[in-house]
Amino acid sequence: MKWCANIAASLVLAFCALGFAADYRIPPPGSSPAARYPSMDPPNEGLAPLQAPEFAPAGEAPSYPSFKDGEAGQAKSSAASAGGAARERLGTRAGLNANAAAPLTSQGTPLSTLDGQVSGSVQLTGASSQAFLRIFIAPGATGDIQKLVVSQDVDMDGSVDFNYTPGFAVSGVCANGFVGCTPGTWADCTYYGWIVEEGKLNVAPVASGVLGGCYCINNSCGGANLLWNNLSLVLNDLGGGAAGALTRASPSYQITQAKLDPGNMSIEFYGADLAAGRPLADGRIISGTVSETQYYGRPGQPAAINLDSSAQAEALAQKADPKSPYSMVTQLVERSGTAVSTQNCQLNRLVSISSPTILCADPYPPGTLVGERQVHEYFRVYGYPWSGKDDCRIGKDCGGPTSCYLPEPHRFWMYHWLPQDGPVMEAAAPPENTTLVPNLEWWVYAGCSKKDGTDVGHYSAYQYWLLCTKKLDLISEELTNGCGAMEADPQCVLNSEIVDGVTVFRNGGSTGLVPQPSLRNYTGQLGTYPVTREWWRKERTYSCQKEQAPHDLSGAYERVAALKDSTDQFELGTTTLHYADRRKNAAGAWIADGGSITLNPPDAVSNCQPICKTRKVISNTDVTLSSTSDKQRSGPVGGTLDSNQIWGFSYKPCETQGCPLEPGEELIKDCQCLSEFAEATAILQTLSQAGKDLICSDGVRK
To answer: Which of 64, 85, 169, 624 is paired with 681 by a 20 to 30 Å CA distance?
Structure first.
């Protein structure tokens, strides 16, 4: 669509120039913007204020923005080139038809860029009168959707070829599915998500956490008529979920319009399959509305569709949607005369999971403990040497880690001991944060000697030091309220509230819909933990009234009067504009001021539209009362034309290449400031005299 953008850019060039000229103000020299515009109100909240340029203090020469050398000429040249190309292709009725209307409304004419270098097939109109997806619901006595019918045009030939109806009542609606429960209750519920199988919509059971924005619609949740009072919301959510499943399965589908019809308890979708180059129905492109020809009426035959009733139905449908243009304009009219601002805010439930590792002796960090595991790591460190009277064979004959014991006082100490609840690592010294394990040591046999006929055993004693840590998973929860200021302001009224995608408050009143608790999973170092809450996000819109003083424009009037009086004598063609001004200084007193602005010299322009005069032989087949016009002539005209031929003269605006001549056309007068006033006057006088000759004023034919 690059060529469309080029055409649009050229067409809006002139409007941009006009907008710049209209928005330009003669800037008064002085101090701050507030002092220069003392009587103007502050800008509306949420809008960035216009930034007026800063000027030198009073008495000093102000500095004005200006073009650098050559920039003005380049800008003019570019604008003239673009404007000339647009005029050449779109400046005449024939050019507009050939280069814009025909390409946008017919399939065989390509649309080209202004320079003619790029072209392509673009068709803007051609309504699709058949929806490719329609959802119909029928409420039951218990408030559930007793019947849900999904009608789909799978092969997009303009006719429905697939219908899906679940064999159970629908008790709840979600953003991407629905919920089936025992009718009239919220018990024995099964959650279903939209799926697409071979291009056809269907549903499949899913976990409740997979669906989002679920709410109950039957009588058990909000009394009778809950579904009837929220038909538009229910249809929008059901249709949005189904259409979303289709577009996810086929990304080339482009939905162009959703037509909501609460009166018939249905919603329809129109669009196009961009990959196949065809609409999602029978039209050529994608207007997604009823064909305009059905509104046309013929003499004695009414239109197929009544325009008034269609307009009323559209107004009712838009009235049910607070975001529709109709609803927004209606609210604007109702609030006219009051200073009302719309404020948006949110309440959020922020849940986070942290996974620290702490020492066993340390206190637990803040948060709710959801997972814990103690970890032991042992470090074996040399402790001391030991010798004692014993049988030297003890050290030699120990075969296992727990089979040998030493004599008193170490009788119950293990000779070899390996902890079973954690790894053992060798260390030269006890690491930080470790504790000595009592009564448990590792003894290594070093040798045996004889002393006074007694065996003396020599050993190296190693001690165990324990590092005890805890791996934790902690969940923290925080509520943020961005609506506190509006809640406390008596001038602010709640207009709408959406809780986790469910509209519970609309146009200042409750919808009766109650969002169902939803589940989110949070994963830490020890596992995944489901967290269920009543709500996660609340989006609110408040209407806040503000006291506003009447606008005082007296200061603006006085300044405008001073500027106007001083610039009335400005003459076109001059390059300096002198002006006088009155403004308020920082103390609020009126002072006289003035200055001058250097203007770019005006471009030389022609005082006329260059045109040319041409002629071309055309057939003369006019009919008179007695015969055709060629029978009234006795022979060739001027000796060069047949009796049924005449010269047809044309006046044409000149183009860049000169006079645009058609095949067989002769140039009579080339491009110039042409004036044919004398010739036109003579022709009119001749016709007037001829008309008088044909009038029989006295009743006698002459």
So the answer is: 624
